[in-house]
Each structure stands twice: as C-alpha cells, then as structure tokens.
C-alpha cells in the first residue's frame, strides 16, 4: 500500500473540515460529530485516525467515559495543516491544478452545505463572493498582504462561544501574466 503524502492527507475534503473544526479549540470525536453531522461516524473516525497518523492533529488527552476512553484532539501546530512554500514551489503545473481543484471543491462543498439548510438569508448571514482586479506595484502589494494578514491573524484567534458562528473565508490571488516590458 502506498503511503499518502501529507499534502494528500490534508487536502481530502472531510479531513480539511476536521482540521478547520480544530482551529483554536480542542475537541473529542463526538464533539466533531455534532459539528459535522453530515459525515458518517465510521468515516469521521477513519479520517481522524489518518490525520493523527500523519501528525497533522494530536491526541492531547484521554478521558475515561462510561467504560471507554474518550480522546481529545488538537491542532497543536497549524503549520502541519498547511503546505509550506518550499513544497508548493516544487509542484508541477498538474499538481498545482490538482491542489487548486481540491481547494475549490472544498469551498463548493462549504457553500453547498450552507445552501442545503432549510432556511437561509444570504444578506443577514453575511454570504458574499466577489471578484475584482486591483493594480498594485510590488511595494503596494506587500503592504496590502501585510494588512490582510494582520486582520486574518486577529480574527482567527477568536475562540468559539455563544453568538459566534464559524464563517469560511477564502482568498485567491492570481497575478496577470507578466508582460515583456514588466
């Protein structure tokens, strides 16, 4: 049996959702099941096991519960749940397209789960997707990315609590093709 690369482990749609559920929190498999009700229990446990084996998530505690041991999982090192720039630079064009396709499929799955709710209100729920082009020189672009990163860093530290909903933000930056005179 061929061992899956960490990239392949991370990019599976169900495992991506498990990783996202563990951002800034620790959970048992049962708590994840409540958060991810559309994933069959056996499937959820199989994917959790795969993530633990790959070192992406960790068991941080084991608690006896009615004759069984309940494991508490954590994403101790968020860097393990992402693909390093060095690795990305080594990908072929086909590998980049595969990676991007999996990214887009995950976003589409999130949106479909939202739309499948019994009642939705895009405006009050804050649903938005848009595309725009901006013209920035390299220095302006670096400043822009720094500002966005600061905002992301601030809000990704929020812990779940009453009144807060998890919202998926996705950013894609694609530069135009370089021209001869650039």
TrEMBL record:
Keywords in alphabetical order: DNA-binding
Keyword DNA-binding: yes
Pfam families, per database record: HTH_20
InterPro entries named among the record's database cross-references: ArsR-like_HTH, WH-like_DNA-bd_sf, WH_DNA-bd_sf
GO molecular function terms attached to this record: DNA binding
Record has DNA-binding as a keyword: yes
Entry protein name: Helix-turn-helix protein
Annotated organism of origin: Neobacillus bataviensis
